[in-house]
Amino acid sequence: MTEYTEISKNRTKTWLIMFFFAVFITAVAFIFTRALGFQTPSALGFTGIALIIAGIINFFSYYNSDKIVMAISGAKQIQKKDNPEVFRIVENLTIASGLPMPKVYIIDDTAPNAFATGRDPKHAAIAFTSGILQKLNKLELEGVAAHELSHVGNYDTRLMTIVSILVGTVALLADLFIRITWLGGGRDRDEARGQAGAIFAVVGIVLAILSPIIATLIQLAISRKREFLADASGALLTRNPDSLADALLKISKDKEPLEAANKATAHLYIENPFKNPKLTGGLANLFNTHPPVEERVKALRGMQ
Fold this sequence. Notes:
Number of domains: 2
Strand content: 5-15%
Radius of gyration: 22 Å
Number of strands: 4
């Protein structure tokens, strides 16, 4: 299997999942509006309005995602004079990839990890922990930097920001539906709706409970696919998949949890920052933020 084959396969899978996500969130909004007693034409109109309002609410987060994430993570921006070796590695890779130079940040934490963020390559930033700079050799660090730059070049940073907004939109719609239903005095409204309205009301309540979970599962699935894609793209950039594979093994075997990480930012990192044992097997894999390291290393070792 070549790097190009792996990239093409993962891009296709990711966009199929995104298409399903778009259909899902539209269906959720429509069912909620029907469950509140609106007929189909009005429900479609209110669905559009609800999605627009949710988009406006999240507009600020989208355009300031890099600053927000760096502030939450306690990352400090550095200049070339602060760490010339890291800057040279990132600079050389940006030249090779044709990307603009991202801002570089350091997180003062001895746990080895890294992530990229920003809405597009012109507003991108890469953060390395002090631990990853100390524990990885130059080739391994180059593999990690190439992986993170690939997230930028593949617009994964934008995609995951949008996906996070969509997940937040689903949670917002579900919470709003429950509050309106609770305050609206359900019995009289159910009688006025008729049998079809009552069915939509029941479906709406069930969906209000399950939809945030389903949305999160979709987010995690996209995150895992983009990690595979960034691995393949990073290997293509350095022409050395073994260096990234070695880096992933070192990071995963280090048992120190990253204190700066939280549930909102965990999916951004190159590897699970919490170092807790991953769920494995069957449906349990759906709840992991990252693919198993063994699978990622196997894919990288198999690239020719």
